[in-house]
Amino acid sequence: MRPPDRPNARRDLPFLRSGPLSHVHVDAWPLLDAHLDRWDYTRVELDGRRMTSRPAAHRHIGEAFGFPEWYGAGWDAFNDCMGQFVVDHDGERVAVIWRHLDAAAATAPATVAEVGWGLLEVQIGDLPAQNPANTTRVELVVFAVGDGPDFDRPE
User: Fold this and answer.
1) 63 phi, psi to nearest 5 deg
2) At residue 139, what are phi and psi to the nearest 5 degrees?
3) Each residue of 17-60: pLDDT tens digit?
């Protein structure tokens, strides 16, 4: 049998039941870490403890993704900067590792929903600010890593 030539988290991590934003239990982190290493993912780390309001979330997103200084607390700027991020990382596999999602959700649940939605739009390739003729793409996946029954791990 020919080895796979494309990453597939559900194949490599068969315990995953969540998605499209996969929830991985901290106990399964070594398995996810090995999967990301195997497929040479560029990693972007988000810390939910730094995302407890809309402005704080956007500041942290800007830092994590290396957005320019002018990036502000809004989704239009996110779309513009993320479009450039995709151009700059064309062809790369990018994994967003979102830790402490519960801390952000406890104080800014609507912002967590917005951030999740924005990241998943990038995951499916829907970048409103990007010219449709632009063919640059990243293979972006989003993993929330945490504790509790809502996070997947091997039985």
Assistant:
1) -65, -45
2) -100, 90
3) 998 899 999 999 999 999 999 999 999 999 999 999 999 999 99
Peptide bond before residue 20 is cis, with ω within 30 degrees of 0: yes
Amino acid at 4: P
CA distance 40 to 16: 20
Other residues' Cβ atoms within 10 Å of the Cβ of residue 16: 20
Contact (Cβ atoms closer than 8 angstroms) between residue 83 and residue 77 = no
CA gap 1, 62 in Å, rounded: 43
Tokens of 147: 């504790």
Full-model pTM: 0.91
What tokens were used for 114? 């917005």
Residue bearing tokens 């796979």: 4
CB 82 within 8 A of CB 122: yes
Residue 121: which pLDDT band, with cuts at 50, 70 and 90? Answer: confident
Cβ burial, residue 133 (10 Å; 0-12/13-18/19+): exposed
Nearest to 63 by CA among 52, 76, 50, 53: 50
Cα–Cα distances (Å) from 54 to 8, 27, 92, 110, in that order, read 32, 30, 28, 9
